[in-house]
Write a structure and sequence with these properties.
alpha/beta; TIM Barrel; 26% strand; 22 strands; 10 helices
Length: 379
């Protein structure tokens, strides 16, 4: 099969190209109209499928309570955003609840279902700060991470724990658990943390490589105290997630972070939660707590504090390009190759020969027009 467009994102440029797909793989990228095309997308943007590495849930469910039926619903919904890969992100909850959900997620991954790929598990909680930086996560579910705890969670997920967030001040100067995660191929992010710049520096020296939803749930930047945000901006080798929606992060702040991280280390995320897909108004969690879906596309607690996003990743991408005015290459990399490289995935995220044929087609405002997963048009 050959598809083509006058705007294919290839080698960090939008160019007239055609893409040959055989089975689940891209087997060639050629000049536009070189061969007869099976599908010509005209001026639409054809790019690698999007990857949302920080994505909790949808339609009144989330990964903390994942069941087989919901995972099917979720992974057949996500292609409508152009998302072809994601992580099942868990947050602080009773440990027994999380272990059951992790088992279901691990089995789902092993059985290789149709729809958006779940590449692994992102453990955003329960290794959180006990202070205000914990955000909407409950301090009573906090766990101090150890090798044994990491193994317990990873075993529950059938070995699919891929990305782990830790508030490093909890470690009290002993970063053995970060080194252990790195030795197992897990990627470590710093987040929901009151860590100073120096603590972040030490955690990075021991293997941390990323920052969780930068600006949110972390010690802010001050000119005499650079904090966690300063570390996210300063360390060139580290990736930085950003919820670029104008609510979690102001457009100017998002633009500044993108300039600091450059085109290779900036990652756009949704941090979408179970409220995503629900109507504007009040809804209740599984334990009966009120949550509000607001017209600005975020969830809030009864106090008004932000409690996660309801945005689609293609909407975040559109905001980053057209409102935050972040340069196009940085934005497109931030939802494709950057999260893949951060996770260590080396066969997705580019329009390139021998890469998997995960492809998204958008108009100029990033409304999704078509999504291919493993070379198959998903409908």
């Amino acid at each position: 099969m050959i598809i083509q467009s006058r705007n294919v994102y290839f080698e960090e440029k939008l160019e007239p190209k055609q893409i040959r797909i055989e089975g689940d793989t891209i087997t060639g990228v050629f000049p536009y109209n070189l061969f007869k095309a099976d599908e010509d997308y005209g001026d639409l943007i054809v790019m690698p499928g999007l990857c949302d590495v920080h994505n909790h849930g949808y339609n009144d469910m989330d990964s903390n309570h994942a069941t087989e039926d919901w995972l099917k619903e979720w992974t057949t919904y996500l292609p409508s955003e152009g998302v072809t890969s994601t992580l099942a992100s868990i947050s602080s909850n009773p440990k027994d609840t999380l272990l059951v959900a992790l088992k279901n997620i691990g089995e789902w991954i092993d059985n290789k279902h149709e729809g958006t790929h779940i590449l692994g598990v992102y453990e955003e909680g329960p290794f959180i700060s006990s202070g205000k930086e914990r955000g909407a996560q409950k301090v009573e579910y906090q766990i101090i991470p150890t090798r044994e705890v990491i193994d317990e969670f990873n075993d529950a997920a059938n070995g699919h724990l891929l990305y782990v967030m830790i508030a490093p001040e909890m470690l009290e100067g002993n970063y053995d658990v970060i080194e252990y995660c790195a030795s197992k191929g897990m990627k470590v992010a710093l987040g929901h943390t009151a860590a100073t710049f120096d603590i972040c520096k030490e955690a990075i020296e021991h293997g941390a490589i990323s920052f969780t939803h930068t600006y949110n749930g972390m010690k802010g930047l001050h000119h005499r105290d650079p904090g966690t945000v300063g570390a996210a901006m300063y360390f060139d080798e580290c990736y930085a997630e950003c919820i670029c929606d104008g609510v979690h992060v102001h457009a100017v702040a998002a633009n500044a972070l993108a300039k600091c991280k450059g085109k290779d280390k900036f990652i756009l995320i949704t941090d979408s939660v179970s409220l995503k897909g629900l109507s504007v108004g009040i809804h209740y969690t599984k334990d009966g707590q009120p949550r509000y879906v607001c017209e600005d596309g975020v969830g809030r607690l009864e106090s008004g504090s932000i409690a996660g996003s309801c945005h689609r990743l293609n909407e975040v991408l559109d905001y980053a390009v057209h409102t935050a005015n972040i340069d196009l290459v940085t934005c497109l990399n931030a939802v494709t190759i950057n999260p893949m490289r951060m996770l260590g995935v080396n066969d997705r995220g580019l329009i390139k020969e021998n890469y998997k044929a995960d492809i998204a087609v958008f108009d100029e405002n990033f409304n999704n027009k078509a999504t291919y997963i493993d070379g198959v048009l998903f409908k």
